[in-house]
Amino acid sequence: MPWNLDSSRPIYTQLVERIQLDILAGKYQPGARLPSVRDLASEAGVNPNTMQKALAELERENLVHSARTSGRFITEDTAMIEKMREELATAQIREFFEKMQQMGFSSQKTIVLIEKMMKEGKA
Questions:
Q1: Are residues 25 and 62 in the same domain?
Q2: pLDDT at 121
Q3: DSSP 8-state class, residue 14
Q4: 50 and 101 share a domain?
Q5: pTM of the full structure
Q6: What angle do CA 66, 68, 70 make, to 5 degrees?
Q7: Residue 67 domain-assigned?
Q8: Helix 78-102 vs helix 11-24: angle between axes, to the nearest 10 degrees?
Q9: Which long-range contacts (CB under 8 A, 24 or more apart) does 112-118 make?
Q10: Is the same domain home to 34 and 55?
Q11: How far apart are CA 18 and CA 34, in angstroms?
C-alpha cells in the first residue's frame, strides 16, 4: 500500500521524514540494511529517482550510509539516534503546547487534561 503523501509539500521531503521516523521508531534497527531504492520507491508509490534523492539527504544527515555494492545501512550510532528521537519528541510537544495555548489553555490546564486522559485509559 503506497505511503500517504501530501501533494502540497515536496514529496522527497516527506520521504525523508517518513524514513527518518521509521528509523527513530525502531522499524529499522541500527546497522540494519535498508531495502533497495526500487523496493522503497515501490512501497511508497514514488519514482525511484525521488526516493534516491531522499536517501541521499538521509546520508547527509548521517542516519544512513552506503556500502558500495551492498546497499544502504542505518547508522550504528545509537546515541545520535536517541538524540534525534528526543529532539523530534520535544518539537512535537512544543507544537502541541503552542496549539493548546492558542485555544486558551495554560500549560498547567493542558497537563491536567493529559493526566485525566491517562487515568481514563485514553492516552
A1: yes
A2: 87
A3: H
A4: no
A5: 0.80
A6: 80
A7: yes
A8: 110
A9: none
A10: yes
A11: 13
Please, what is the average pLDDT of the chain?
Answer: 93
Q: Is residue 5 part of a domain?
A: no
CA dist 17 and 58 (Å) reads: 9
76-85 long-range contacts (CB < 8 A, ≥24 apart) are 76/30, 76/31, 77/30, 78/30, 81/23, 81/24, 81/30, 84/20, 84/24, 85/24
- Residue 26 domain boundaries: 11-74
Q: Is the pLDDT of residue 75 over 70?
A: yes
At 1, the pLDDT band (50, 70, 90 cuts) reads: low
pLDDT category of residue 76 using cuts at 50, 70 and 90: very high
Q: How far apart are CA 39 and CA 109, in angstroms?
A: 46
Q: How many CB atoms lie within 10 A of CB 61?
A: 12
Number of domains in the chain: 2
What b/e readout covers 76-103, taking b as 16+ CB neighbours within 10 angstroms?
eeeeebeebeeeeeeeeeeeeeeebeee
For residue 116 the three cell numbers come to 485525566
61 and 18 in one domain?
Answer: yes
